[in-house]
Specification:
Elements (H helix, E strand, L loop, with lengths): L15 H14 L3 H17 L3 H5 L2 E10 L6 E5 L1 H15 L2 E5 L4 E3 L2 E9 L3 E10 L2 E12 L25 H11 L8 E4 L3 H12 L4 E4 L7 H4 L31 H14 L4 E2 L2 E9 L4 E8 L2 E5 L3 E4 L21 E4 L13 E5 L3 H12 L3 E6 L4 E4 H9 L5 H5 L4 H9 L6 H15 L1 H9 L12 H9 L3 E4 L2 H6 L4 E4 L3 E4 L3 E4 L4 E3 L2 E4 L7 H7 L2 H7 L32 E3 L4 H19 L13
Parallel strand pairs: 1-7, 8-9, 8-14, 9-10, 14-25, 15-24, 16-17, 16-24, 17-20, 18-19
Antiparallel strand pairs: 1-2, 3-5, 4-5, 5-6, 6-7, 11-12, 12-13, 21-22, 22-23
């Protein structure tokens, strides 16, 4: 993803002062990219050390951006423009004490934009970042916390010996220690952190916390890690490629398939949980949770395989994915339907429906997968599309969108998963559409014949309200798209029947009546109608009052469909402090869960160790 892609510099009438600046800039540009970055870092470092906030702010363009992942703000926060940067520094600089800003490797220049990886220190942490310079000023700055100085992860040179040398009659083996921990944690000893949700998000965060020695229990109602994946419909595979989907610490092997089948994902998560020695309670459901203001802890009632007990963690993380409870529409006549009906999350697969007439309400990822599997198994399947869908072919997504950061070629070019994550994270959400819009216009041109076939079949297509495609739709609303792995051809060819611009008006015992008056026979109705906000889980587990106090999860306030304003500039309530003390939300795809679990784990560790964590810019509701 080119840093200058789609960015147009505004033309300006140059005053004498500006011409003088340009003369200086011409001389400055004769320096190497690395030297220009080094000079900028020295100026910035000096301004911060001397608490000269005005000078520090002048290091940025007037509309420059600073995205901070907990290193200054103890928050996930983007500052937009010099005024917001100044306001942030006036509140955080004294406590942060940043210093030692250095170039980490040679900077590169492309289309007038210099990009560089940088390191820095604060009073309590080490940091890593990314800088983009234009004409000597910072266009974007990303700062991230990588570790707490006094509490580093026990890895590499700090790793455990494993063996206990010498003579000790009371020696406990590694296995005995693990068994003792398993016996005591949650009973005679309380976890500092409880993670509700044992999918890839909860497991990855649990691994981070394990390395930071934060006592943690992960609970999930499924018996084993990975069962959430195993229990989904038979044809389910990851639609994102392997390079995008690694877990923390242990990447997939080099022979791992590009698109991982669901059961293979499940097996990997089960193996990962065991190898990373996580305290995972399967067959455990959270009954209720309430925060005790006086004791500053949670009271969480759980049912562990029939055993009722109350846990008292200091921190509670809802890791239930990026979505909330399933959205199941209330349609007149549902209770009279003689066939089978269920939400897509409960769909078992297509094997049982050969020769059956199947109706799938919805036209996004799950709907397409389910329709294709039903057709493959000999069902007569009709997709009902109520609103337009963005579709991108899987190969095109790989070649034109992800390949520069997440591919075998990217690895060969020295782009590690960590750097790919940071590169993606270095682009402020405010200007991200400018990066994506030209890419998706190229996609539309490359696959124009494909899109024309779908349109001719009556399928309603879109590329987002501003033609920014898949990722902006995902970030803004988490829905409204399909990564095509074959189902679109079935729609275009009429093998999957399509009724667009309609929903279900009412249901009869053996049919559905659509909003245009059409009646379709039905043996099966699948509601591929998505999910609610994550705070729906907070309402169910804690209370509606707390859910309202926290507010909406996901989206950034772009004022587009399903992402109402006001502008937040970051994903709402994700991986950062919320309006409810000691309540956190963790979710997203495998890439986001991997990347942002690092910052969530450091926030939790800092609180456990009593480090001051003054939060700047706590999200308002």
């Amino acid at each position: 993803m080119n840093a200058a892609n789609g960015i147009q510099q505004e033309s300006q009438t140059k005053t004498t002062k500006e011409r003088d600046f340009m003369t200086y800039q011409k001389l400055d540009n004769e320096l190497s990219a690395s030297q220009q970055v080094t000079n900028w870092l020295q100026d910035f470092d000096q301004a911060l050390r001397t608490k000269d906030i005005d000078k520090a702010v002048q290091c940025f363009e007037t509309q420059g951006y600073w995205r901070d992942l907990i290193s200054f703000t103890w928050n996930i926060k983007t500052l937009e423009g010099q005024d917001e940067i100044k306001e942030m520094l006036s509140h955080t600089l004294e406590a942060t004490e940043p210093y030692n800003w250095k170039l980490d490797e040679e900077a590169v220049e492309n289309d007038g934009v210099i990009e560089a990886w940088i390191t820095f220190d604060t009073k309590v942490a080490r940091g890593y970042g990314h800088l983009r310079l234009r004409n000597g000023k910072a266009w974007t700055l990303l700062t991230t916390m990588t570790e707490l100085k006094d509490f580093p992860e026990k890895r590499k040179k700090l790793r455990s010996k494993g063996a206990e040398h010498g003579v000790n009659p009371d020696r406990l083996t590694w296995q005995e220690k693990r068994e003792l921990e398993d016996k005591n944690l949650g009973y005679s000893e309380q976890p500092y952190c409880l993670i509700i949700g044992g999918g890839q998000g909860g497991i990855g965060l649990g691994a981070r916390l394990r390395q930071l020695e934060v006592p943690t229990i992960i609970i999930d109602k499924q018996p084993k890690p990975g069962d959430t994946w195993r229990n989904r419909y038979k044809s389910l595979c990851l639609h994102d490629p392997v390079w995008y989907d690694h877990m923390p610490y242990i990447p997939f092997p080099e022979n791992w398939p590009v698109f991982t089948p669901k059961d293979k994902v499940g097996d990997w998560l089960e193996m990962y949980t065991k190898i990373m020695e996580l305290n995972y309670w399967g067959s455990t459901e959270c009954i209720s949770a309430a925060f005790d203001e006086e004791l500053q802890q949670w009271d969480v009632e759980v049912d562990r395989a029939g055993e009722r007990l109350v846990l008292h963690p200091k921190q509670l993380v809802l890791a239930t994915g990026m979505s909330g409870l399933p959205n199941i529409p209330k349609i007149p006549g549902m209770e009279d339907f003689a066939g089978e009906q269920h939400h897509s999350s409960q769909h078992p697969g297509g094997e049982a429906y050969q020769g059956k007439k199947c109706i799938v309400l919805g036209a996004n990822n799950s709907a397409h997968d389910i329709c294709a599997a039903l057709w493959e198994n000999g069902a007569d399947v009709t997709m009902l599309q109520r609103s337009s869908t963005h579709i991108i072919k899987s190969n095109t997504l790989m070649d034109e969108v992800l390949g520069g950061l997440y591919s075998e070629e990217a690895i060969e070019n020295g782009i590690t998963t960590y750097k790919a994550d940071l590169t993606f994270g270095s682009i402020p959400f405010k200007i991200m559409p400018q990066f994506h819009e030209p890419v998706y216009r190229k996609v539309a041109e490359l696959d124009s014949d494909f899109y024309q076939k779908l349109t001719d079949a009556g399928f309603m297509l879109d590329f987002g309200e501003d033609h920014t495609g898949l990722f902006m739709k995902y970030l803004r609303r988490g829905s409204g798209y399909y990564i095509d792995v074959g189902a679109s051809e079935l729609v275009a060819e009429g093998k999957i029947k399509l009724k667009s611009k309609v929903g279900i008006d009412h249901i009869k015992s053996h049919s559905v009546v659509l909003t245009d008056g059409t009646e379709l026979e039905a043996d099966l109705i699948v509601y591929a109608t998505g999910y609610g906000s994550m705070n729906g889980w907070a309402a169910k587990i804690i209370s509606q009052e707390v859910a309202d106090k926290v507010g909406k999860c996901w989206g950034m306030g772009s004022d587009t469909v399903k992402d109402p304003g006001p502008w937040e500039g970051e994903l709402r309530n994700m991986w950062k402090p919320t309006q409810q003390q000691a309540l956190w939300f963790h979710g997203g795809n495998l890439h986001q869960s991997r990347h942002y679990s690092q910052y969530l784990s450091l926030q939790l560790k800092a609180r456990m160790e009593g480090i001051e964590t003054p939060v700047y810019g706590l999200q308002e509701v």
